[in-house]
């Protein structure tokens, strides 16, 4: 199991890494939300331990952005004990919430619990009328014909599908699919949507243009 620990307190990073190694887990550290997002963009993790109060980007925003990119279980680790803070964390998409100070043994137990729960819910593919998306194989089938999508178009389609029936602005799409450090503009999104629609053929209408705003993938599973 590979764990990403996101906390600006170095001592907490080291403690969790030590215990994770004892349990046979590989552990990677990040000290703020932006660093965590970049690591998730380039590496695969089985679970994330996320602090709340960090410089550059807090744990709440980082959680929302990561959940839009990949469906990774997130355990929030915070000094905030208020019920409102916990509820807000769950609204952002966390799978569990622990308060500091904490028991590392309990944290490991919670990690096991959320990963087991995730394993039982993992979605390996999405199936719509005339469109099948194989997430693990990164393949799509349109009207029984396999279509080879370039990597970025597949990432874009998967983001649309995971956020289906939601209006997505061009800025949101740029941030989540290309990353905060990408220096292009909204025309990049429009160009890739045009290419993706072409590859979807008769199923291009799943992607709706929302005038003046962005796009929406409109479908039911």
CATH superfamily of the largest domain: Response regulator
The percentage of residues in β strands lies in 15-25%
- Tally of separate helices: 8
Q: What is the 3D form?
A: elongated
Low-confidence stretches: none
What's the gyration radius in Å?
19 Å
Helical content class: 40-55%
Following the backbone from N to C, one meets helices and strands in this order, namely: EHEHEHEHEHEEEEHEHHEE
Q: Predict the CATH topology of the largest domain.
A: Rossmann fold
From the helix content, strand content and strand pairing, which structural class follows? alpha/beta
Q: N-to-C terminal Cα separation, in Å?
A: 30 Å
How would you explain this protein's 3D organization?
- The chain has 221 residues and is an alpha/beta fold.
- The protein folds into 2 domains: 2-122, 3-Layer(aba) Sandwich (Rossmann fold); 125-217, Arc Repressor Mutant, subunit A, CATH 1.10.10.
- Helix content is 44%, strand content 22%.
- It has 8 helices and 12 strands.
- The strands form 3 sheets. Strands 2-1-3-4-5 form a 5-stranded parallel sheet, with helices on both faces.
- The mean pLDDT is 89.
